[in-house]
Amino acid sequence: MARGAKVTFESVRGDKVRHSQRARLLSLAVDRGETPTPFLPVGAFRATYEVVVTLPARDRIKFQLDGRGKVKLSVNGKVALEGSLNSRNSLENEKAVRLKKGGNDIKIEFESAARGDGELRVFWSGYDFGFEPIKPELMSYPAADQAVVAGEQLRRGHRLFVERRCARCHDYDELRLADSAYLELDRSGPDLRLVGTRVRQGWMAKWMKDPHEVRPEATMPKFALGGSDAVDIASYLATLGQPQPHAGFTKKQAAAGGERFRELGCVACHTRTDESRQDAMLGDRIHLAFVKQKWHASSLVSYLQDPSAHYDDVRMPNLKVSAEDAANLAAYLLKDAAPLPVRKGDLKKGRRLVRKHGCFLCHAFEEDIPPVDRLFPRYRNLKPKRGCLADKPGGDAPDHGFSAPERAALRAFLPFANEVPFRKSPLDFGARHVVAERCTACHALDGQASTWARLAEKWSIDEPLPPEQDPVAQGLPSLTWVGAKLQPSWIRKFVVGELPSPRPWLTARMPKFEKHGAALTDGLVREHGYLSKDEPIRPGGANLAIHGDRLMQQGTGFGCVQCHAVGNKKAEQVFEREGINLVTARKRLRHEYYTRWLADPTRLDPDARMPKYADNNGKTAFTDVLAGDAAKQFEAIWQALGDKAK
Question: What angle do CA 562, 567, 568 make, to 5 degrees?
Answer without folding.
Answer: 90
